[in-house]
Amino acid sequence: MKIAVVGTGYVGLVTGTCFSETGNNVTCVDIDKSKVDKLNAGKITIYEPGLEKIFLRNQKEGRLHFTTSLADAVKEARIVFLALPTPPGENGSADLKYILGVAADLGKLLTANDYKVIVDKSTVPVGTAEKVKTAILNNGAPEFSFDVVSNPEFLREGVAVDDFMKPDRVVIGTTSEKATKLMNDLYAPFVRQGNPIIFMDEKSAELTKYAANSFLAVKISFMNEIAQLCERLGADVDMVRRGIGSDSRIGKRFLFPGIGYGGSCFPKDVQALVMSSDEVKYDFKILNAVMDVNVAQKLHLLPKIKAYFGGNLKGKKIALWGLAFKPNTDDIREAPALNIIDVLVDEGAVVTAFDKEAMENVKQLIRDKINYSENQYDALKGADALVIATEWNEFRTPDFDQVLALLKNKVIFDGRNLFELEQMKDLGFHYESVGRAKVVSK
Ligand code: NAD
Fold first, then answer.
1. Which residues are 350's β-sheet partners?
2. pLDDT category, 441, cuts 50, 70, 90?
3. Counting CB atoms within 10 angstroms of each CB, which of 21, 162, 202, 206 has the fewest?
4. How far is the first Cα of the chain from the last one, in angstroms, to the nearest whole number?
C-alpha cells in the first residue's frame, strides 16, 4: 500500500518507518527542509532505540522516502497520516493550526475518483475529525473523495519501535466501511499475536487517547502524593508500592514515585482534556489536582537541597545526572531537570550536567547557563552534591568508588529512587530520595 505521513517527528518517523517495515511504500513529509535533507542522506534525526536499523534498511530497499512536498507525497498515497504537532494554545487547549492548515492544503490536492483515507494520528480533541473533514471540503475536495479517520498513537518514546510493531491495541475511529477495510488491512501484520484492533466512532477514539494519558498521569500524581505522606508519616513508599501493586486490580506498573511527569504528551494532554471539559461546562476535578500535584512535585528535591546547605546555594557546585524527561530518549520537553536547573541557577548554584542523549537538545535551549560533562563521572569532580533527575540504566549501578572519590561531599539527592537506603548508609552517603527515609551519615 502507498502511504504518506505528514510530519516527521517522534511519531511520524516511527510511524513511517514501521509501516515501510511491513512492505508498504511510505513517503514522509516535513516542512523542516534540514530534517528532510538529513533523512534523505541516511541520517536519523531522533534518538530512538532500534529505529535506525530499520530506517536504513527500508530506505535502502526503496520503501521509505522523505520530501518537503505535500503534493508529491499524497499524489499516489491511499492513506495519508497526519502526525503533526498539537501543542497547547494560549489557554491550554490543543492548538489545531498545524492539523487544520495541512487539512486545507489537502483539500486543494484531493480529486474525484481517487479515494484517500486521511488519518489523524496526532493527539487531538474530540470533534477534530469533523473539523478536518470540513477544512478539506471547504478547500475544494470533492464530496466522497475521502474519509477522515481517528487513529490515536500510543507509542512511548524509548520503546517506540516495539510499541508500534507490537501494539497492545490499535484504536481506529471511523464509521466508513471503506476506511475500516483499508485500516484493517494496513494494521493486520501488527496484531498477528491477537492483540485487538478496536473500531469505534471518531469521537470515542479521540477521547480514548486523552483518557489513557490522563489516567496514567493520575496514577503518577497519586503515587507522588502517597510518597509525600510517607515522608511525613515515616512509611516507605517502596513498600507501599509493592503492597498495592500486587493487587491485580491495581497492577504493578506506573506506580513509581519521582519528581513528576514531563515529556511532550502527559502535561499537554491532561491540560487539553481539562480545557475540553471546561468547554462543555464540566469541572474535571481530579485532573486539575493531578496538574497541581505535578507542578509541585517537579521541585520536590529543592527544599531538601536548600535545607542541607543551610538555605544558601550560592557558589555550590551541583552535579546533575539526567536531563531527558525519561530514560532512552533525547526528548527534553517539560523535563523536570529543566525546572530543577532554573531554581538551582537562580539561587546561585553552579550546575554541571550529564545525559548521554539529551545534552545537545539542552545546549540548544539554555546554552551556557550550565556546564556539560563528557561522562557521568566527570560531572562529579569537586561537586558539593549529586542530583539525579532521570533514571538512565547506567546511573543505577555506578562505580561508587569513583563517585566517592570525585564528589567533594558525600551527598546525593535522588529524584528517581535508584538506590537502596541500606547501601547508601553503608557507603556513608547523605542520601535523600522521594517518599523514603532520609539517610543521614556523618
Ligand atoms: P514532533 O514535534 O516531534 O513532530 C512534528 C513534526 O511535524 C515536526 O518535524 C515538524 O517540523 C512537522 N511539521 C509541522 N508543521 C508541518 C507541516 N505543515 N507539514 C509537514 N510537517 C510539519 O511531534 P511528535 O512528538 O511526533 O507528536 C506529534 C503528535 O503525536 C502530537 O499530537 C503528539 O501529542 C502525538 N503523540 C506523541 C507521542 C510522543 O511520544 N512523542 C506519542 C503519542 C502521540
1. 317
2. confident
3. 162
4. 67
Confidence band (pLDDT; 50, 70, 90) for 329? very high
Which residue bears the cell 506498573? Answer: 253
What SS3 state is found at 66?
strand
Residue with cell 518517523: 13
**Contact between residue 391 and residue 416 where contact means Cβ atoms under 8 Å apart:** yes
Q: Which three cell numbers stand for residue 31?
A: 516542512
pLDDT tens for each residue of 34-54? 999 999 999 999 999 999 999
One DSSP character per residue, 178-190 reads: HHHHHHHHHHGGG
Q: What are phi and psi of 18, to 5 degrees?
A: -70, -35
Q: What is the mean pLDDT of residues 381-394?
A: 98
Rounded percentage of the chain residues whose pLDDT exceeds 70: 100
Q: For residues 91 and 278, what is the distance between their CA atoms, to the nearest angstrom?
A: 11
List active site positions.
265
**DSSP 8-state code for residue 434:** S
Q: How far is the CA of 85 from the centre of ligand 1 (A)?
A: 4
74: pLDDT strictly greater than 90: yes
Taking Cα atoms as reference points, which of 304, 302, 287 lies closest to residue 220? 287
Determine if ligand 1 sits within 6 Å of the CB of residue 98.
Answer: yes
For residue 87 and ligand 1, the question of a CB distance below 6 A is answered with: no
Contact (CB, 8 A) for 423 and 396: no
Q: Which residues fall within 8 angstroms of residue 207, CB to CB, at 6 or more apart?
A: 126
Give, for ligand 1, the residue of 80, 84, 216, 273 to mutate: max count of ligand atoms closer than 8 Å to Cβ. Answer: 84
Residue 9 CB less than 6 A away from ligand 1 = yes
- Asked if 329 and 354 count as a contact pair (C-beta separation under 8 A), the reply is no
Q: Is 32 in the pocket of ligand 1 (CB under 6 A)?
A: yes
In angstroms, the CA 355 to CA 363 distance is: 11
Q: Which atom of ligand 1 is nearest to the CA of 8?
A: 9
pLDDT of residue 225: 98
